[in-house]
């Protein structure tokens, strides 16, 4: 009986370790997995699927964002906020990206140990976490400001590493 249990545990561990990159993404943004499971259809909101989407995200970030006391992020411009992409932006910012300094530090550690190039949704979510972190640093005082700034720098370094890693993996034309 003990041998069967041990074999089962080893099999589960091996299966977990060799699962597709989907598990790596789940580890970076666990809230994304919880969000998917709470919906009837599997959804993975991604804002940037085209150049127009990139421009739209840039508009969202340039528009005045508001973070209320409950840490809910919203776009102040009502016209922009009414767009379909704004709903996806809202979902990512309020249901997926980490908001506490502990969760953001955990993300930074995971990113520093991430073995491959980030998927576009993970890269995008990391950038949005960086934006949130910069906002919190700007709104904080003294020690808290330093903690948020340090987290911002860690995320920046992880994204810089990912960009350099992805650039080195591209074939020369």
UniProtKB/TrEMBL annotation:
Signal peptide residues on this chain, from the entry's feature table: 1-17
InterPro entries to which the protein is assigned, alphabetical: FAM180
Pfam families attached to this UniProt entry: FAM180
Alphabetical keyword list: Signal
Magnesium is among the record's keywords: no
UniProt-recorded name of the protein: Family with sequence similarity 180 member A
């Amino acid at each position: 009986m003990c041998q069967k249990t041990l074999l089962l545990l080893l099999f589960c561990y091996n299966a977990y370790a060799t699962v597709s990159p989907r598990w790596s993404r789940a580890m970076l943004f666990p809230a994304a997995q919880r969000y998917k499971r709470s919906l009837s259809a599997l959804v993975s909101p991604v804002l940037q699927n085209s150049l127009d989407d990139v421009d739209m995200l840039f508009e969202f970030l340039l528009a005045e964002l508001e973070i209320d006391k409950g840490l809910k992020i919203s776009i102040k411009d009502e016209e922009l906020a009414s767009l379909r992409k704004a709903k996806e932006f809202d979902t990512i910012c309020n249901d997926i990206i980490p908001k506490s300094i502990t969760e953001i530090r955990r993300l930074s550690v995971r990113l520093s140990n991430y073995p491959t190039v980030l998927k576009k949704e993970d890269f995008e979510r990391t950038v949005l976490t960086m934006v949130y972190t910069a906002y919190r640093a700007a709104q904080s005082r003294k020690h808290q400001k330093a903690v948020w700034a340090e987290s911002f720098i860690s995320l920046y370094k992880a994204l810089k590493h990912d960009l350099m890693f992805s650039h080195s993996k591209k074939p020369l034309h």
